[in-house]
UniProtKB/TrEMBL annotation, chains A, B:
Superkingdom: Bacteria
Keyword line: DNA-binding, Repressor, Transcription, Transcription regulation
Entry protein name: LacI family transcriptional regulator
Matching SUPFAM superfamilies: lambda repressor-like DNA-binding domains, Periplasmic binding protein-like I
Length: 332, 332
């Protein structure tokens, strides 16, 4: 309200000049620019960056939309992305959608309203909402459109790795706990797993979890595993869900890995804290985070990004929930 | 740049009028206001909310500054706060400081620049940075100034509860793993614990972790626990650090709770996933989150908040890492 007047007074220039400067609506000489900038500095008035962002689409904020910050994989990812973008002078506006489509749409509007420089969206449920934003967008896992760069691990291959490891460890009665079906990454893992099982003529039982992680899962979906004793191998679609499954086995006094072997997916930090520690398929959070941050910064700078689909290699991380000891990559 | 011109053209008014309207720097008749607003609507141009926020301090964003979103307690807290404020029409701009003072200062500037309606700051290291913001601030754990409302559990009492439980479980050779000394909440826990031990004439060994949670902790601080075998009880300053300690005991084949009993602090979700599951002191994340959100919204609305120090009662959650079975509150 009076801020612009105050700056004008402080700088000894007219308010129209300050307005032209802040809103970039006309010529302001270098001399006056300097005076205004110094006045802004002195009055500790900070809207210029933001005001410029409004009209020039040039804020130093990158929006990061994640489905659930409680998933250890997503929160590690957020930390890595922040580390990379902050070195390039950007801050992260972190939005948590709780896996709700409406919340994601809401946050896209909020980010657009705040004129973010770019958006990184993780396991998005939106499509056209991103396509007309006029803001660089990079997607992790979900394919949004032909124009938007998608980074994903090769989830089909990851599912294959998981099956082959359980098979080599001697499992023949296997159940796969899969996750929300709207996620192509999760269905890809499932498909790779089933395909490989089919080659070995092993029939896989399937269980569906409605969510990748919520505390309620402990009390609802997990009951579907009532007859867990009849299996000798379980592949769970991510680590935090695997932690829930392991805890459930322990409550039922089913021994891991002696009676049932378990493999997760992600290689998030929770795997190391579990006892026994979790064998899993790594989708390198470091590599994924750096790639996402790098691509969005390049797009913001107007550089060309050649590949529209960037694939990250999955990798087996052998720990204690499966038996085979040789050929392994040991975690901490 | 051209946006304001475009709106002016669309509305059939002069660019100076649009500027006066957006920047609130002079009189605009109701008739012209309506024309401009309709033009903004038609051009799908969304700066008005933001432009108004700049000059009227009235955005619908609440900044939430946390030291480390990887700490399960802080990420549950973020989810709860978001749930509450979103019902009141606000969104959360989540900032992760990685426990770095400079990063916290930087994010305070960013939030101020984006004219957030209020700030919730968790275990802050800043003081005067918050006092001249002109934005409602609520603090969790850290006392910032007399004017800023602080919400905290009674950490001295929590420390006392932890000692008394270990004592009742038969522990006499006890070590306390404490955390970063800049946190008054953590030193309060320590002091309450030591005070109660003193009453029973038990000497407590002290160990200091530099951080409440980072993966590196696994490789550095933990080595200080080399002679873990000589203790029969450990109180760790939070759950995620307790998870690290438990994992270390397991690697050293020290049995929990048979040989050493462990109690954490927080009651974050990780405690239920551990095996054995973690006995801990709860500082209800639900109660803390709702209180923080409620206070900041009341302050934003200009309502008075009577108490400057709001204390949340801690509570013992008995699980499997300690022995005593009666008088217990069982977790899942």
């Amino acid at each position: 309200m009076t801020n612009m007047r105050r700056i004008a007074k402080e700088a000894g220039v007219g308010i129209a000049t300050v307005s032209r400067y802040i809103n970039n609506t006309g010529y302001v000489s270098d001399e006056l620019k300097k005076k205004i900038e110094e006045a802004i500095e002195r009055t500790n008035y900070r809207p210029n960056e933001l005001a410029r962002a409004i009209f020039n689409r040039n804020s130093k904020i990158i929006g990061l939309i994640v489905p659930n910050i409680s998933n250890p994989y997503f929160n590690e990812l957020a930390l890595i992305i922040e580390e990379v973008v902050s070195k390039a002078g950007y801050s992260i506006f972190l939005c948590n959608t709780n896996d709700e489509l409406e919340k994601e749409q809401h946050y896209i509007n909020v980010l657009q309203g705040h004129r973010v420089a770019g958006i990184i969206t993780v396991r998005s449920r939106c499509k056209e909402e991103y396509t007309f934003l006029g803001v660089p967008v990079v997607s992790f896992e979900s394919v949004i459109s032909d124009e938007i760069v998608t980074v994903a691990t090769d989830n089909v291959k990851g599912g294959k790795l998981a099956f082959n490891h359980l098979y080599e460890c001697g499992c023949r009665e296997i159940v796969h706990v899969s996750g929300p079906i709207y996620s192509s990454a999760i269905t890809d893992r499932c498909n790779g797993f089933l395909k490989e099982a089919d080659k070995k003529q092993i029939t896989i039982d399937l269980l569906q979890f409605d969510t990748d992680f919520q505390r309620k899962m402990l009390e609802s979906n997990i009951r579907a595993l009532e007859d867990i004793e009849k299996y000798d191998g379980i592949f769970v679609f991510n680590d935090i869900a695997a932690a829930t499954v392991i805890r459930y086995c322990q409550l039922k006094k089913v021994k891991i890995p002696e009676e049932v072997q378990v493999i997760g997916y992600d290689n998030s930090y929770i795997g190391e804290f579990l006892y026994p520690s979790l064998t899993t398929i790594e989708q390198s959070v470091q590599e994924v985070g750096i790639t996402l941050a790098d691509v969005v910064i390049r797009l913001i700078r107007g550089e060309e990004v050649q590949e529209q689909r960037i694939s990250i290699e999955p990798r087996l991380i052998k720990r204690e929930t499966t038996k085979l000891q040789n050929n392994s990559v040991q975690g901490v």
